[in-house]
Amino acid sequence: MQKDRILSRLREKGCRITRQRLHLIDIILENECSSCKEIFYKALEQDNTLGVATVYRMVNLLEEIGAISRKNMYKVACSENCTMENACTIVLDDGTVYQLSARSWNSVIREGLRSCGYLEGQRVDSVSIRPCECEKQEC
């Protein structure tokens, strides 16, 4: 499902879907890579003609279309069908820490959007959060 959405976004952007691009998307979806270099070495195992520049261009392209975030260790955002545990850590100001599975995180987001009137039958595809950029020490 995630792969289909990524391919659709790439096509909308006018990109050709090459064998190397498909291979890199599979690696990113199936592994927990922490760098372009790690993706490159995994890709080399099956295709020794792949260049490191191709990996960097593909990662930049995937980030540009919103499919991945480098701050998220190249993981694709979780949908409501994801079974990953500990997908989200929430720390409250009293020190309470909650570890939410991907399904629980998606449910919290859905319920919050619904109760605020933002969600009317749609499904949450992904969530992107930027780090605070204000000048205050605490926000």
UniProtKB/TrEMBL annotation:
<dbReference type="InterPro" id="IPR002481">
    <property type="entry name" value="FUR"/>
</dbReference>
<protein>
    <submittedName>
        <fullName>Transcriptional repressor</fullName>
    </submittedName>
</protein>
<dbReference type="Pfam" id="PF01475">
    <property type="entry name" value="FUR"/>
</dbReference>
<dbReference type="InterPro" id="IPR036390">
    <property type="entry name" value="WH_DNA-bd_sf"/>
</dbReference>
<dbReference type="InterPro" id="IPR036388">
    <property type="entry name" value="WH-like_DNA-bd_sf"/>
</dbReference>
<dbReference type="GO" id="GO:0003700">
    <property type="term" value="F:DNA-binding transcription factor activity"/>
</dbReference>
